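Worked example 3 (structure in, sequence out).
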């Protein structure tokens, strides 16, 4: 098996995050140089994770506040009533899958082969990957909410452990 040596840079990740937030939420993800003060530091942190296997072995994680996930659900479903927690989890799973799919595309090449994406896992808090290292991350801001996208790389000969 050929293992991908490509490393997405901050510009790649920022473009993916901005394209996804613009397409789904109709707002841009601002870069750290333009971040206002965080007004939601006490809000519950939610995280979506998809694993990537094949030419690259690892995970893509999207972390956000509960408030962001609920607001995203309202924006995606275009209804005030869809901002409940179940809809918010579904939307966080969808956003994680779309961002993960775009990241997966950076690692899939004709030379190195395809990558495959898992179904998303959504949890409260930030999961840890004991047998993976942080490869890249970006922080962005959508309106008053900060979001983080992180890529973790694991050993292709070991199953990725999430705790």
């Amino acid at each position: 098996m050929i293992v991908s040596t490509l490393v997405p840079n901050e510009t790649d990740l920022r473009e993916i995050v901005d394209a996804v937030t613009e397409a789904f939420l109709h707002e841009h993800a601002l870069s750290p140089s333009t971040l206002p003060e965080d007004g939601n530091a006490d809000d519950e942190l939610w995280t979506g994770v998809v694993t990537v296997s094949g030419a690259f072995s690892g995970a893509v994680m999207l972390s956000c506040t509960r408030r962001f996930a609920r607001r995203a659900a309202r924006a995606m479903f275009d209804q005030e009533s869809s901002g409940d927690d179940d809809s918010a989890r579904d939307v966080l799973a969808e956003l994680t899958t779309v961002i993960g799919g775009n990241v997966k595309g950076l690692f899939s090449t004709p030379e190195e082969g395809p990558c495959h994406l898992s179904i998303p896992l959504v949890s409260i808090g930030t999961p840890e990957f004991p047998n993976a290292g942080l490869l890249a991350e970006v922080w962005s801001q959508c309106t008053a909410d900060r979001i983080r996208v992180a890529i973790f790389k694991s050993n292709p000969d070991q199953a990725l452990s999430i705790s």
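Notes: Strands lie at 45-54, 58-65, 115-117, 121-124, 132-142, 145-154. The two ends are 27 Å apart (CA to CA).
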